[in-house]
Structures are given as structure tokens and as C-alpha cells.
Amino acid sequence: MDFRNIALVFHIVSLFILAGGVIGSVIMELTLWKVVTTQPRSAGLLSKAFSRFPMFQTAGGLLMLISGIFLLGSTHWYYWGQSWLTVKLVLYVFLAVHPNLTVKPAGKRLDKLLQIASATKNLELNPLLTEQELIMEMKSIRNRFRIFNIIQISIIVIIFIITIYKPHLF
What is the pTM of this model? Predict the structure, then answer.
């Protein structure tokens, strides 16, 4: 097995690690929302576990970047500047930046809301937020997470398609 094939194996493995982190995050998020609606006091613990999935996404992303550089090096940078690679790199950067712009702030807000929900038995006694406001805010955050997940999964699928069919698409 030559250097290029090894780099290619790591590149494909990195995509699966990245996708696994995203899929695991989606599954954990769906579980989180079920717990939020049925047992809001227990949701804080699940929220902390939910925050661990970005580690897989980061590890997969870094491995993808390193293996991609090795792949380009193994071809003497032949593909550098080709349109399919440019599109793939732009999507890759967006995949890395997008969580920090959308989910991270929403996750912090969700943690605060879960603390408020678990701190009081009767939310109407809480002067910071009424029960109706809490529900509306949670729905807003849930929609942000849903849109985020759809975008992330779509980008991973597009990157996968570009990787496989590059000569035929561009």
C-alpha cells in the first residue's frame, strides 16, 4: 500500500468520524428534547453529555484536514486550484465555523434555561422567566438546532459526493 492509499483511507475514515459525531449529536439532541418535555430537571445532565459530541466532529475534521493535505502532497498538488477542490474546501471551512456561529450560543442559552427550569418547582414563581416564555425560548432553540443539523448533514453529504464523483461534477 503506497502513501496515497494510506492518506485516502485516513481521509475516508475522518469523514465517517465527522459524520458519526454529527449523527450522534442529532440522536442525543432528540433524546434531550424528549427529556426536556417530560423531566426538565434531568435534562441538565443530558445536556452535559450532549456537549461531548463536538469532540468527535473536531477530531474528524482535523484528521480530514491532515489527510487531505497528505493526499494533495501525494499527487504533487495536482488537484490544487481545481473547482471541485475549491468547493470542497469552502464547504469544509463552513462546516468548521458554522457550529461556533449558531449552536454554541444557542447551547449556552439552553443551559441557562435548563438551570432556570431545574431551580424552581413552579416556573411561575420565577421572576426571570414565565413558563410560557420558557417554552417559547426552548422551541426557538430547538428550531435552531434542527436547522443546524439539516445544514451540517447536507454539507457532509455534499462533501462525500464531491469526493467520490469529482471528475464528473466539475
Answer: 0.76
